[in-house]
Amino acid sequence: MRSTVLLFLFLLVSGAHAQLSVNLEVKRRNFLRYEPILITVSITNLAGRDFVLEDGASPWFGFTVLHGDATTIISPRNPDYQLDPLELKLGETVKRTINLIDLYPISELGYYRVRANIYSAVHDKYFPSRTANLDIEDGRTVWKQLVGVPETFPNSGAMHEFRLISAINGAHNYYYVRISEPDSGKVFGCYRVAPQLDNTQPTLQFDTTNTLHALILTAPKTYTLTEIGVNGQVYGQWTYDAPKYKPALRRDESGNLEVVGATRRAAPVVGATPAPKLSDRPPGLPR
Q1: Rounded Cα–Cα distance for residues 104 and 112 (Å)
Q2: pTM given for the model
Q3: Burial class (CB within 10 angstroms; exposed 0-12, middle 13-18, buried 19+) of 143
Q4: What is the DSSP string of 17-40?
Q5: Rg, Å, the chain Cα set
Q6: 3 strand-pairing partners
């Protein structure tokens, strides 16, 4: 335990005279359990010359993740991953966005502290970022449904569970959708889909592929439709205006669902948390 504390102190001291400026950005502090935690790391070359970041004594791109007290370090899922070298020009800033839960098993409830560590073999030292504080919480299940995975989909024949969860995030309540396999406990996705307004009930239906369609009131006369697949894919999210009546989901002859009683806006919704893409990860991280 003492060695882990000394390592963390070393990371703090080593950045005192930085030839690299490392910044970590996370948009909010509170996250639901299993929700994607997207973190952006910016690296600026202040060394006065071009040089290359490459693996040496350790991978050049990494994190220190602490759970609870300052001595509980969370180990990465794959401590032996390798990264492609990155050339940094003089004064250049490079940004990388990653989903932290892909790299670290952050599944327990509680308080976490996260710091990005950029190792430079040229300088033989770590350059740490500031510390970001995270709270991993769980909400209240307000609806759940077990459905089968169709034959033409991955994991065909398995039973997956959809849950609609209500959770407080900051000063507001939000609805989340979590998709899991109850038998194994595997979670395929967990996404914040819409704010929760008082005394309103969402409309939830499945189409013929067991894709969930969630129609939720998000503002006066304004609704959000989110489509999430049985394996956790977010297919899209759209805003609908319903100036007169409450809209509904109607099934056509082929089994597809459509929104009736409302008009869809042309622009897509930005607020939904999409499924993280492989391109969001730093080059060379394990897939």
Answers
A1: 12
A2: 0.79
A3: middle
A4: T-SEEEEEE-S-SEEETT---EEE
A5: 22
A6: none
Give the pair of three-digit tokens for residue 247: 């809209």
Cβ neighbourhood burial of 270 (10 Å; 0-12, 13-18, 19+):
exposed
Residue 244's Cβ-count burial label (10 Å; 0-12, 13-18, 19+) is exposed
- Kindly report the CATH number that applies to the domain delimited by 2-136: 2.60.40.2970
Q: Which of 119, 48, 155 is nearest to 282 (CA)?
A: 119
Does the pLDDT of residue 275 top 70, yes or no?
Answer: no
Higher per-residue confidence, 34 vs 12? 34
* Distance in angstroms (rounded) separating the CA atoms of residues 62 and 128: 10
| Helix ranges, 55-172 (H) | 100-103
Sole residue written with tokens 């492989």: 278
Q: How far is it, in rounded angstroms, from Cα 100 to Cα 51?
A: 27
Q: Sort strands 248-251 and 159-169 into parallel, antiparallel or unpaired.
A: unpaired
∠ CA 279-161-259, rounded to 5°: 80
Nearest Cα to Cα of residue 121 among 185, 196, 54 = 54
Q: What is the mean pLDDT of the chain?
A: 86
What's the confidence (pLDDT) of residue 267? Answer: 66
Cβ-based neighbour number of residue 19 at 10 Å: 17
Length of the chain: 287
Q: Map tokens 């894709």 to a residue.
A: 211
Query: Alpha carbon 125 to chain centroid distance?
Result: 30
Residue from 126, 134, 8 nearest 64 by CA: 8
CATH 2.60.40.2970 residue ranges for the chain = 2-136
Three-class secondary structure of residue 262 per DSSP: coil
CB 14 within 8 A of CB 127: yes
Q: How far is CA 287 from the centre of its chain?
A: 15
Q: Which residues pair with residue 205 across a beta bridge?
A: 213
